[in-house]
Amino acid sequence: MNFREYNIGARMFGVALGGSMCITLLLPSLNISRVDATSVSMDKQLTAGYETGWNVYDPLMLGHNKPLKVQLKVDPTTGQPIEPIYAYVYRSGTPFPGGVMHPDNLGTDSKTLSLAQGRMGEARMTEGAVFVVKTTDKNVAYIEDATATRGWQPDAVLRVAGDDNISHAGAGKTLFVREGCWWCHTLLPEQTQDWQVCGAPPMLGDYNGESPTAFGSDRKAPDLLHVGSRNSSREWMMLHFWNPRLVQPHSIMPRFDYLWGAVDANGQKIDLAKWDAEFNAYREGKRDLPPDVPMYAPNSEARWLIDFVLNMK
């Protein structure tokens, strides 16, 4: 029997579905290139640098060839105190992010300001550069090449800032992707109860030039987009990554103690077997306190990943 009504209904459903997809995906794309990048997107792409996933500059995803985010309190050219500002240091050979390499990604107004006032087009990857994010009175953000406008050189900026004011969040994002953190955590709060619990949902212009976006594929654990605002304790993060059961007894998160490497901050060999034995004794009630977590070395992957998590605000 030929079910004519079913055939008609199937075609109507196809037309309705195709129309809704056109409205949802195609029509917004016609104007999406005109959306100006926000200061949030500029911070994210300048912090992370070029493609965070697998790429020719870092094929093993070790966090190499990444920029450094620096809080400057002293002008590196004059030595005079300045209002604290974040600078993004790209040493010679560090690949620039999409917004610098392809200014169209910044949107119409941000692109114009970045090239005209920020002199972004003068930056050269072979020489290195220092970028800052500026905002006009009309709240339009743009990228300034401080090497061209202020004479700030990468080595001088790193020297006056000191290690305590340097964040390896760019390398940390590579580890966030490599270690599969986005399999359980999202970076995309929704307009539901997330607003109260995980922070405000992002804006459209918050993703210009970022690659990849690391939205996440599931949520078995809290959204992390604003986690640095909810919990800014580096010590808590260190305990959590070493062994999540230290701070959340029933956590299903795996341990990331291997990111510490072989030695601690003092260059002493980390005895993981001894630590595990003492921790098991603590869980069985044979110790009053858990063993101390070793402080990570300044160049360890643990530091990079924690820097990235604390940078999300």
Characterization of the model:
The protein has helices at residues 4-32, 39-48, 98-101, 108-116, 146-149, 154-161, 169-178, 194-197, 227-230, 234-242, 272-283, 301-311; strands spanning 68-74, 81-90, 129-135, 141-145, 166-167. With 313 residues, it is an alpha+beta fold. It is built from 12 helices and 5 strands. A hairpin with a 5-residue loop joins strand 3 (129-135) and strand 4 (141-145). The mean pLDDT is 91. The longest helix is centred in the N-terminal third of the chain and has 29 residues, at 4-32. It has a 5-stranded antiparallel beta sheet, with helices on both faces. Helices cover 36% and strands 10% of the residues. It has 2 domains: 39-167, no CATH class; 175-311, Orthogonal Bundle (Cytochrome Bc1 Complex, Chain D, domain 2), CATH 1.10.760.10.
What is the CA–CA distance across the termini? 62 Å
Order of helices and strands: HHEEHHEEHHEHHHHHH
Question: Which geometry do the CA atoms define?
Answer: flat
Q: Could you give the order of strands across the largest sheet? A: 4-3-2-1-5
What's this entry about, in short?
36% of the residues lie in helices and 10% in strands.
Walk me through the topology.
Blueprint: H1 4-32, H2 39-48, E1 68-74, E2 81-90, H3 98-101, H4 108-116, E3 129-135, E4 141-145, H5 146-149, H6 154-161, E5 166-167, H7 169-178, H8 194-197, H9 227-230, H10 234-242, H11 272-283, H12 301-311
Antiparallel strand pairs: 1-2, 1-5, 2-3, 3-4
Helix pairs in contact: 7-12
